[in-house]
Design a protein that fits this description.
ABC_transporter_ATP-binding; transport; 10 helices; ABC transporter ATP-binding protein; four-stranded antiparallel β-sheet; 319 residues; Alpha-Beta Plaits; alpha/beta
């Protein structure tokens, strides 16, 4: 696929000398979903703001659909829809009027059928005559997305789109994002919820301290950097590992009631067969065996820690 968004050596240094972006380069393909993960202050929102022309870059370039976002700002910005993290809506305005007004800001002629289609897609049609102040937080976020889609952008930026909404509504939003992708919209989202990236993203970017550490296909990243663990549960707990097991990458867990073996799925041999034989020779009796795989959260936390990004806030929370 062709790149619809090309970023080259983008840097942003504020007056006080703080470097928010340190030479970010990135190509985003048409029709993909890219999730940007990073701890608080990593540069995610600065990157989005700079692409959208809200913040001026210190150096570097951004090309949106073939248009430079500085010298051809209007053409570039017309291709972008932005859903900000903060809910900034006129409380006394009606839903329909709010969305229609956003379309007019981009010089698009009134198109009631198009606005109706957007509102129906986001389950807002029944609320079209409601005032913004009468809506729940989740419905207000839907209005923000409707505003961003009103002028038919090719690229949609979602900055923490499901922050503060319940789990059920979050999954509804995932479905909406999937439908938008199916219609050809390119989506870039930042998220506090790593399971969100794991559920809907095609590629994952990890940014910390203004540096883009990597951008990779989600499945490939998890296969390349993920590890598997085998938990061997014992019928009787032990105080220490027997000598026969000293050569294995083992941890004694659950108060001595289980052995945790970590291995690389890419290796030619996992070593599991040898391990189980040695466990039997050591006179230990197995009660059960379970495997588990590294999640995207495990990979993210490890990457940020190795690159000096400090302690990431996760619970799904990687801000």
């Amino acid at each position: 696929m062709a790149a619809i968004l090309s970023i080259r050596d983008l840097r942003k240094t504020y007056d006080g000398g703080f470097q928010a972006l340190k030479g970010v380069s990135l190509d985003i393909e048409e029709g993909e979903i890219l999730a940007l993960l990073g701890p608080n202050g990593a540069g995610k929102t600065t990157l989005i703001s700079t692409i959208c022309g809200i913040t001026t870059a210190t150096s570097g370039s951004v090309c949106v659909g073939g248009f430079d976002n500085v010298s051809q700002f209007r053409q570039a910005r017309a291709l972008i829809g932005l859903v900000p993290q903060e809910i900034t809506l006129e409380p006394f305005a009606k839903v329909h009027d709010t969305v229609m007004f956003s379309r007019g800001l981009f010089g698009k002629p009134a198109d009631p059928p198009r606005i109706e289609a957007v509102l129906r897609k986001l389950s807002l049609w029944e609320k079209r005559d409601a005032k913004i102040m009468e809506l729940s937080g989740g419905m207000k976020r839907r209005v923000l997305i409707a505003k961003a889609l009103a002028h038919d952008p090719q690229i949609l930026f979602l900055d923490e789109p499901t922050a503060g909404v319940d789990v059920e509504l979050r999954k509804d939003m995932w479905e909406i994002v999937g439908e938008l992708k199916a219609s050809g919209v390119t989506i870039i989202l930042t998220t506090h919820y790593i399971e969100e990236a794991e559920a809907i993203a095609d590629r994952v970017g990890v940014i910390t301290g203004g540096d883009l550490l990597l951008v990779e296909e989600k499945e490939r990243l998890m296969a390349r950097m993920g590890q598997k663990q085998l938990e061997v549960q014992l019928t009787e707990p032990i105080d220490a590992l027997p000598e026969q097991l000293a050569g294995h990458n083992l941890q004694l867990v659950n108060g001595g009631g289980a052995l945790l073996y970590t291995y690389d799925t890419r290796a030619e041999r996992t070593g599991i067969t040898t391990l189980l034989n040695d466990v039997a020779e050591a006179g230990l009796v197995l009660a059960d065996v379970q495997t588990r795989e590294s999640s995207l959260e495990d990979i993210f936390v490890g990457l940020v820690a190795r690159n000096g990004g400090g302690e990431a806030a996760v619970s799904g929370d990687a801000a």
